[in-house]
Specification:
The chain has helices at 20-32, 46-59, 78-90, 109-117, 149-158, 177-189, 233-245, 266-273, 317-326, 346-356, 376-388, 410-419, 442-449, and strands at residues 3-5, 12-13, 64-65, 69-73, 94-98, 121-123, 129-133, 139-144, 166-171, 194-198, 209-215, 250-255, 277-280, 294-298, 307-309, 330-334, 360-364, 367-371, 402-405, 427-430. By secondary structure, it is of the alpha/beta class.
Length: 451
């Protein structure tokens, strides 16, 4: 599907979908607790549908191959695959996972190696499919921390189901640790006991363990009386960025500024760029903040380049790179090497997509360098304002626009769509259907917000 986005500004109020990361974890916890209707999730993205489909297969409500093999269609969802695979193994299920897109090429070997030590074998299967057999046993698991935090989360959710206690050792620094914190939060609310030891000085040596998780075996999942899913900061980031790029205002209500979702840091990142941001917190009668009722408003600003470490917020890189196109000076995005292992080599595809739209952007070993594009008109306005001692006007259009390939990556599609607000001409995006992976209603929301 190709779409053409007019070069208009975005403004208004947008209620973003529930957090995809939390939805995966709560839906899995609900299934393991034997519940079916406490987790109300309106997020109908392809990734969430894949998790629901696989959970139905595990429970026996989904399709089965023969009498013994559960059929698991993960679509392109790495989260579904990496979280549910060790859980299925802990339940002793023989499964065939269908992997679409580039999911079969994304790293899994460290997880399979850890599972093999504990009785789970990977069997031959046709291309695009993976079969496992055997029942996972407890004990000691060693997993690297620099490839995917989902390996750790999957083992943490599976370990309580095992017959003996387990200890999960994380080698080297744990990148994207916020996602593991989200997993631990869900486990705690479900009554699962996990003891955590953290060594913040751990280096990259094989013998350095940055995190040690001790999980008792034979535990039972029990859902709390009420489960409320937070809204998704990864999705909100695109709209908040739109507010920073143009005068806006752009408003996202129902957020949680104290969220364990690390992508809430988009607020601090945009502030660092110079965006004008207001965070309104609703308090109860005792003066305590009401959860999931924060209202975030972005009203633009005169942007300048920054240096930002994205090791814990890799999904924000497309947003940050786009905002940098409008920021005066140079922006350096560091510690983004793991983006090469996403749906696409996202360092390369962010670079190529923004460059196609006219950005001055370069890739280095583990990051991006973006030089903000200041138009001749903006330079003249800045010089005149400097002489008068006044504030320069915002000159909004800096990218040229035109045709761009999203490479089938949902975050590249959303980035290019928001880029239209600072482009001289409309932006035409190829493979735009990719947004259904995480945000099926994205284009509908976009049309409602364009002015």
């Amino acid at each position: 599907m190709n779409v053409t986005i007019p070069n208009k500004k975005f403004s208004g109020t947008i209620e973003v979908p529930e957090s995809k990361s939390y939805a995966h974890r709560w839906l899995i916890a609900q299934a393991l607790a034997g519940e079916h209707s406490k987790v109300i999730c309106k997020n109908n993205s392809r990734d969430i549908v894949a998790t629901i489909r696989c959970l139905e297969a595990i429970s026996g409500r989904g399709p089965v191959i023969g009498r013994e093999i559960c059929y698991m269609d993960c679509d392109e969802s790495a989260t579904t695959y990496r979280l549910i695979l060790p859980i299925a193994a802990a339940l002793g299920k023989c499964c065939e996972f269908t992997l679409r897109g580039n999911l079969a090429d994304r790293p899994m070997e460290p997880l399979f190696k850890a599972l093999k030590v504990h009785g789970v074998r990977r069997e031959d299967a046709e291309s695009g499919k993976v079969r496992i057999a055997g029942r996972l046993t407890g004990g000691t698991f060693i997993i690297p921390g620099n490839i995917s935090s989902q390996f750790v989360s999957g083992l943490l959710m599976a370990a309580p189901l095992l017959s003996i206690n387990s200890t999960i050792y994380v080698q080297g620094p744990l990148e994207s640790s916020g996602y593991v914190d989200m997993t631990l939060s869900v486990l705690e609310q479900c009554g699962i006991e996990v003891t955590t030891e953290v060594n913040p000085t751990a280096g990259s040596s094989k013998n350095d363990f940055s995190h040690i998780y001790k999980v008792k075996g034979n535990q039972q999942y029990h859902l709390p009386e009420k489960v409320v899913l937070e809204r998704d900061w990864s999705q909100a980031a695109f709209w908040l960025a739109a507010g920073a790029l143009r005068i806006g205002p752009m408003v996202c209500p129902g957020m949680n500024i104290d969220s364990l979702q690390k992508d809430h840091q988009i607020v601090d990142v945009l502030r660092s760029f110079g965006a004008e941001i207001d965070v309104f917190r609703k308090n109860d009668i005792y003066g305590n903040p009401v959860p999931n009722e924060d209202v975030i408003t972005v009203m633009g600003g005169n942007l300048h380049g920054i240096s930002v470490d994205v090791a814990d917020i890799p999904d924000l890189v497309p947003v940050i790179a786009l905002v940098a196109c409008k920021a005066k000076g140079i922006t350096i995005i560091r510690n983004a090497g793991r983006l090469k292992l996403k749906e696409t080599d996202r360092l390369k595809t962010v670079r190529d997509a923004l460059r196609a739209l006219g950005a001055d952007i370069r890739e280095f070993k583990d990051g991006l360098i973006v030089t903000g594009l200041i138009t001749d008109e903006a330079k003249k306005e800045s010089e005149m304002a400097q002489k008068k001692g006044s504030k320069p006007k915002r000159i909004d259009y800096v990218l040229k626009g035109g045709k761009v390939n999203s490479y089938g990556d949902h975050r590249i599609t959303m980035m290019c769509s928001i880029a239209s607000s600072i482009a001289f001409t409309p932006v035409q995006i190829d493979n735009a259907e990719s947004v259904t992976k995480s945000y099926p209603g994205f284009f509908e929301d976009l049309v409602n917000l364009q002015k």
